[in-house]
Automatic annotation (TrEMBL):
Pathway: Steroid biosynthesis; zymosterol biosynthesis; zymosterol from lanosterol: step 4/6. This is Sterol-4-alpha-carboxylate 3-dehydrogenase, decarboxylating. The lineage of its organism: Eukaryota, Metazoa, Chordata, Craniata, Vertebrata. Keywords: Acetylation, Cholesterol biosynthesis, Cholesterol metabolism, Endoplasmic reticulum, Lipid biosynthesis, Lipid droplet, Lipid metabolism, Membrane, NAD, Oxidoreductase, Steroid biosynthesis, Steroid metabolism, Sterol biosynthesis, Sterol metabolism, Transmembrane, Transmembrane helix. One of its GO terms (cellular component) is endoplasmic reticulum membrane. GO terms for biological process: cholesterol biosynthetic process.
């Protein structure tokens, strides 16, 4: 039997390393002296000394090349949540994650760190200071969440001290920061189309928005603390800024920071949710003829109008996690990073 070279504990691969979180993670790992392979279906940048492997994570052979002599794998690849393609989510998040686990076994990888999502327990109704022992959503709000649940279960169940393969899942929520293609761009696009005038509900709902560097910090801590005798094995961890904020205050700070007016007029939550549901049903019926993606999907209205914030006490206790960048500073850095989205730019 061919002998495998023992992988160095500082040699890792980032699946989804071209993405928003993945790229920040790659940069931080390199700063901390890790040797990093990037694996992604698309190449978004080049970094000296960082080999890029372009491929689909459903392709085991392609993965095996990127995992050669790697001891830690960070899996943060996923189709974007806004996508409505059920088959794609099933293929990438479920079948693809099975392939990742299999390839890790074959390549002799010792640790797998999955980027899951706090949304795996969110059903569209209030969650206040939710802990990791909340049950998975029985009625997930979309295909993205449905497949993130299956994906997390697959990864956590694969944890085996006997096989020397340890796994952990990080559940971030509302990641934001420089280069995020979702949150700030969607918000500013909505404002530019004159649709950011209304607050859904009374505006008091608290939400976690988590600065990308804190999420990265949580991933690296998890990788470094994940050992056969640690409580992390096979567990999920919320990583947040630990500063729940009113959803509409956060949006207003970003909008005003970029020179736009904050929303002022209130609309009842149930009315907006009902309209969003109706539009979503109409879009579903019309789909064979025309593809419409309404701004106000039921999922977005639920995210904008309910409480959803989580406790990160378990991460503090088991891995010594503390957010590195406070929310106020994180918002300033984020606003400054989008000069092209400033009003009038
Ligand atoms: N952005 C957020 O607020 C949150 C994100 N997450 C999770 O964090 C992870 C990273 O998210 P983001 O960086 O925001 O997303 P992103 O869309 O910027 O990055 C995902 C990356 O995965 C790659 N990818 C997609 N399908 C692939 C495939 N079949 N094979 C190889 N690569 C593939 C994409 O090309 C992309 O570069 C995802 O797993 C997401 O579910 C969890 C909670 C919140
Ligand atoms: C905390 C968390 C899970 C955030 C996720 C980010 C996105 C889901 C949000 C980023 C911009 C948000 C946004 C809306 C909904 C949620 C987001 C897409 C609205 C569509 C809600 C209704 C409005 O009045 C306009 C909002 C624009 C921005």
């Amino acid at each position: 039997m061919a002998t495998r070279t023992r992988p160095s504990s500082k040699r890792c691969a980032v699946l989804g390393g071209s993405g928003f979180l993945g790229r920040h993670l790659v940069e931080r790992l390199v700063d901390r002296g890790y040797t990093v392979n990037v694996f992604d279906i698309r190449q978004a940048y080049e970094l000296p000394g960082v080999p890029f492997h372009q491929g689909d994570l459903c392709d085991r052979q392609a993965l095996l090349v990127a995992l050669k002599e790697v001891s830690i794998v960070f899996h943060c690849a996923s189709p974007a949540p806004a996508n409505d393609d059920r088959a794609l989510f099933q293929r990438v998040n479920i079948d693809g994650t099975r392939t990742v686990i299999q390839a890790c076994h074959e390549a002799g990888v010792q640790k797998l760190i999955l980027t899951s999502s706090a949304s795996v327990v969110f059903e569209g109704t209030d969650i206040k200071n939710g802990r990791e022992d909340l049950p998975y959503a029985k009625k997930p709000i979309d295909y993205y969440t449905e497949t993130k649940i299956q994906q997390e279960k697959l990864v956590l169940e694969a944890c085996s001290k006997e096989k020397g393969f340890l796994t952990v899942a990080i559940r971030p929520h509302g990641i934001f920061g420089p280069r995020d293609p979702q949150l700030v761009p969607i918000l500013i696009d909505t404002a530019r189309r004159g649709k950011m005038k209304f607050i859904i509900g009374d505006g008091s709902n608290l939400v976690d928005f988590t600065y990308v560097e804190n999420v990265v910090h949580g991933h690296i801590l998890a990788a470094e603390q994940l050992k056969a005798d640690s409580p992390l094995c096979g567990q999920a961890y919320h990583i947040t800024n630990d500063e729940p904020v009113r959803f509409w205050d956060f949006m207003s700070q970003i909008l005003e920071g970029l020179g736009y007016s904050a929303p002022r007029y209130h609309l009842p939550y149930t009315l907006v949710y009902g309209i969003a549901l109706l539009l979503w049903l109409i879009a579903l019926v019309l789909r064979p003829l025309i593809r419409i993606n309404p701004t106000f999907s039921p999922m977005r209205v639920a995210l904008a109008g309910t409480h959803h914030y989580y406790s990160c006490a378990r991460a503090k206790k088991d891995m010594g996690y503390q957010p590195l960048v406070p929310l106020r500073e994180a918002i300033v850095r984020t606003v400054e990073s989008y000069p092209h989205l400033r009003k009038g730019a």
